[in-house]
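Example 3.2
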Amino acid sequence: MPPKIWIPGASTATTTAKHLTERTRRKEALSLYREILRTTKHFHWADEKTGEPWNKILQKQARKEFEESKEETDPLIIARMLVTGRDCVQQVQNRFNEATQAAWKRIVKDSDRR
């Protein structure tokens, strides 16, 4: 059993440790949400069916998923959602960067022909 640390205002060390982990999970979730919003800013084209910009669609969907997951209390499920979310954002960013680099290579190649 880990040593107990006395903290003024806390009834037990276990409640303090639980509070810190909840705070950490909240901080991680907010960080992930902000990263998703920053990533969606790069999607400038519109949906072919509705005409709505993809960045707005993705922002709404992210907000909806975070709102639905807000009441989750199981730390294992929360950790799994955070890891999965980070992984998905990283994959999208990598693919977007690869596509941007390929586009720039085509631009340079075409401009060298002239």
